[in-house]
Amino acid sequence: MTTRMPADAANWTRRWAQLLVGLVLYGIALGVMVRAGIGVAPWDVLGQGIARQTGLPFGLVTNLVGALVLLLWIPLKQRPGIGTILNVLLIGTSAELGLWLVPQQTVPWQQGIVFAGGLALLAVATGLYIGARLGPGPRDGLMTGVHARTGWPIWVVRTGIEVTVLTAGWMLGGQVGVGTLAFALLIGPMVGVTLPVLRVPVRPGALESPREEVPA
Questions:
Q1: Which residue, among 37, 23, 167, has the nearest Cα to 97 in the 3D structure?
Q2: CB-based contact 130:212 (threshold 8 Å)
Q3: Are 119 and 193 in contact (CB under 8 A)?
Q4: What are phi and psi of 126, to 5 degrees?
Q5: With b meaning 16 or more CB within 10 Å and e meaning fewer, what string describes 19-43?
Q6: What is the DSSP string of 139-165?
Q7: Rounded to an integer, what distance in angstroms lies between the CA atom of residue 184 and that of residue 180?
Q8: In terms of Cα–Cα distance, which of 196, 194, 161 is closest to 41?
């Protein structure tokens, strides 16, 4: 006689699996895009710049920046979920794994392929961890918190934050290039495809963790 897992237990198992797999793959994707050598996302430009100036590993800097951003949630009265905490702990750690797995690229066509692969992996990873509905990442929470406190449009807040961190990272020696532009233009539409497919459905009457935030 076979037994079936209760629906609630199956739902939570899927959500936890998606969260953990998504965060690990997200970090690996960051490492892959760094190895492509043609530019990275604004927050990673900042991470690279700090790593270059301090000598700390990129993954550790990513975790530390995430933790500092999370502290900014306090005056914004944002509420983190377990996914938010694990985001801070796992993404930078798994970014180091991505850096270890992929050698630095220098041939232009290979750089493009590696970056595209990393970007595609990141879009899938984003759909997985946001779709788990266990709390937004610290950077997304900062964006939505500022939006809630100021009433400014979400795109204005996001653009202002990312231009600020991009400029700071570039001044510190972070890598800005065609990959940075590609990320800005493509990640939104790509996550728009992966998130609806990977989002765990809300069970009627279920008690939910803090709502997820979709990258804008």
A1: 23
A2: yes
A3: no
A4: -65, -45
A5: bbebbbbbbbbbbbbbbbbbbbbbb
A6: HHHHHHHHHHHH---HHHHHHHHHHHH
A7: 6
A8: 161
> How many residues are recorded in the chain?
216
Unique residue bearing structure tokens 């629906």 = 7
Both tokens of 19, joined, read 């969260």
CA angle 119, 45, 118 (to 5 degrees): 15
The alpha-helical segments, DSSP class H, found in 2-41 are 7-36
Render each residue's pLDDT in the chain as its tens digit; 216 residues: 445 556 688 889 999 999 999 999 999 999 999 999 999 999 999 999 999 999 999 999 999 999 999 999 988 888 899 999 999 999 999 999 999 999 999 999 999 999 999 999 999 999 999 999 998 899 988 988 898 889 999 889 988 999 999 999 999 999 999 999 999 999 989 999 999 999 998 766 555 544 444 443
Q: Classify the C-alpha dihedral 145-148-154-156 as positive or negative.
A: negative
pTM for the structure as a whole = 0.89
Helices 108-131 and 82-101, packing angle to 10 deg? 160
The structure tokens listed for 199 are 């989002």
Buried/exposed 143-160: b ≥16 CB within 10 Å, e otherwise: bbbbbeeeeeeeeebbee
